[in-house]
Task: structure prediction
Amino acid sequence: MIWLASEARDETNEVQQMIKYLCSWINRPILIRGKGIVIGVKDEGRGEIRHTASGTTLQNNKDRIVGAVSLLPSSQQNDSIIDVLSNALSLGIPPMHKSRWKKLYGPISAQRLDYTDILKKKQKHIMLQTLKHPKFIYVQQIGVLTEFQGKGVGKKLLNMVIQIAESLGDTALYLETESEENESLYKHFGFKTIETIDMVVPGDNHTDAKQTMWLMVRAPK
Result:
């Protein structure tokens, strides 16, 4: 989420560093502690043609993961003390909290990160109080390599996620997206937008102060 980078949003290295850190933080409990599952899609192409000084070669990329989705069941939504300590020891503190990076990211970046806690509160309220779907799967993160976007990889991932939910019976799917384009995509797969929120940190006067999020649910079939 580029919004979190604040004043460093145009600094490619810093944005990549931040995204890598945040992805590692949220997915580590799934990968290391087995709190959920990660599904990947491999490159089904015949390979990549490369031209080198020694000649033309065909590189086999069939083992390369080109898209993935991480899933967290409703029973594992709360971060335990072990999760937090394990992540902190392994990953350290967020880059926008580090003294040598604070000036680059700006003071509002850390506040925006803290403000994202509202998403967990919204999720709990929507699923447990508004819709009363205590059994659900949180589609925590889904991503496809840039060169494979628009080639059906995301569709394959979403279909697998839906199959998992339907096989469990009476299980809803929940996700958030910051893109109106993605909202349209998810609607095609049966998701409905339950609420749209504008995240704005009090006192944030930057031109990019507002980040809109679409909170979406696919009810059990």
About this structure: The CA atoms of residues 83 and 219 lie 29 Å apart. Strands lie at 37-42, 48-52, 55-59, 65-73, 136-144, 172-177, 192-199, 211-218. The longest strand covers residues 65-73.
